[in-house]
């Protein structure tokens, strides 16, 4: 089994979504993959190669900063800034993750109610003054991927026989995090409990992942089989986060995945994960029309913020 590729040619903007003759086939493909792997590639997605390459350059420049400068912008209570190797444990049954990264997010206005309330992910990002290109590049990239995420959410809604705008009220002020990641070469003497990032599911609605040429990402299918998700030129990998099974009463999957950087010929591996989460106060519960007759909801209602904070606490307090 492999991760499918979905071509978004002609529908990579909301305005052109229903002008595509292939829309029924795309919706059916998303429905099928959401009920199996929860992972798929998208190509012809509308994000320019120039912007993607510029963002990778920013990621590498950030990771190359001296440690004292990274310490100056160390991750804060809003999860903005640099985190270190072994600072997170994604799989509580494994060792801490062999990766380092930089968290940033969408620039909301200083007078936004969630910024004033200091809600999680609404605390302003830490932009290193040593690399002045960081903020404008990241903001351009975040804006482009937010548009792509809106398209994917509309396609997901239609795949569930819902109005294409169904999810929009949940994303009036989305929690958005961009995580730029560097994985050092996997140690030759590492044991079976050491990973670049351990087995985990993502916590929000969607993740849009860009990865470099090396690979190392693996996806766990419902059968228990681990399947490689290697780089595909010109693509992003989309995976569904935990909000999706909560909304669909487990009809759609948020599949476990992991990274082992053992394919890079002793080079570091870079990836960039864009996390698209609902509004902090959005109430997440199974969609009534999706629940089969006689079926009970599998999840109690919670806010997106409550769920996300719980998952962050698990991952960082386990170290």
From TrEMBL:
It comes from Faucicola osloensis (Moraxella osloensis). It comes from the Bacteria. PANTHER family: 2-OXOGLUTARATE (2OG) AND FE(II)-DEPENDENT OXYGENASE SUPERFAMILY PROTEIN-RELATED. It is an enzyme of class 1 (oxidoreductase). Its cofactor is Fe(2+). This is 2-oxoglutarate-dependent ethylene/succinate-forming enzyme. Belongs to the iron/ascorbate-dependent oxidoreductase family. Pfam families: 2OG-FeII_Oxy (PF03171), DIOX_N (PF14226). GO terms for molecular function: 2-oxoglutarate oxygenase/decarboxylase (ethylene-forming) activity; metal ion binding. It catalyses: 2-oxoglutarate + O2 + 2 H(+) = ethene + 3 CO2 + H2O; L-arginine + 2-oxoglutarate + O2 = guanidine + L-glutamate 5-semialdehyde + succinate + CO2. Pathway: Alkene biosynthesis; ethylene biosynthesis via 2-oxoglutarate. Keywords: Ethylene biosynthesis, Iron, Metal-binding, Oxidoreductase. GO terms for biological process: ethylene biosynthetic process. Residues 174-278 form the Fe2OG dioxygenase domain. Its EC number is 1.13.12.19, 1.14.20.7.
């Amino acid at each position: 089994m492999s991760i499918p590729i979905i071509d978004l040619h002609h529908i990579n903007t909301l305005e052109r979504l229903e002008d595509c003759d292939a829309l029924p086939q795309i919706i059916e493909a998303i429905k099928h993959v959401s009920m199996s792997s929860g992972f798929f590639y998208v190509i012809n997605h509308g994000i320019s190669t120039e912007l993607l390459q510029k963002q990778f350059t920013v990621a590498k420049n950030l990771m190359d900063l001296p440690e004292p400068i990274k310490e100056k912008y160390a991750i804060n209570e809003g999860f903005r800034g640099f985190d270190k190797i072994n600072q997170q444990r994604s799989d509580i049954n494994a060792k801490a993750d062999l990766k380092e990264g930089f968290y940033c997010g969408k620039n909301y206005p200083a007078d936004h109610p969630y910024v004033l309330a200091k809600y999680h992910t609404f605390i302003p990002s830490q932009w290193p003054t040593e690399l002045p290109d960081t903020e404008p590049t990241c903001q351009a990239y975040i804006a482009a991927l937010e548009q792509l995420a809106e398209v994917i959410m509309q396609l997901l809604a239609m795949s569930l026989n819902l109005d294409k705008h169904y999810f929009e009220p949940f994303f009036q002020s989305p929690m958005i995090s961009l995580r730029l990641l560097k994985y050092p070469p996997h140690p030759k003497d590492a044991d079976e409990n050491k990973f670049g990032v351990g087995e985990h599911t993502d916590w929000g609605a969607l993740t849009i992942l860009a990865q470099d040429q090396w690979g190392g990402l693996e996806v766990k299918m419902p059968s228990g089989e681990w399947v490689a998700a290697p780089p595909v030129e010109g693509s992003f990998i989309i995976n569904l986060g935990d909000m999706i099974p909560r909304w669909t009463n487990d009809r759609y999957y948020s599949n476990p995945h992991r990274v082992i950087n053992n394919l890079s010929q002793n080079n570091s591996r870079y990836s960039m994960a864009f996390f698209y989460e609902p509004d902090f106060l959005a109430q997440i519960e199974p969609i009534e029309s999706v629940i089969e007759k006689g079926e009970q909801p599998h999840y109690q209602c919670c806010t997106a913020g409550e769920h996300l904070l719980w998952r962050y606490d698990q991952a960082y307090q386990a170290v």
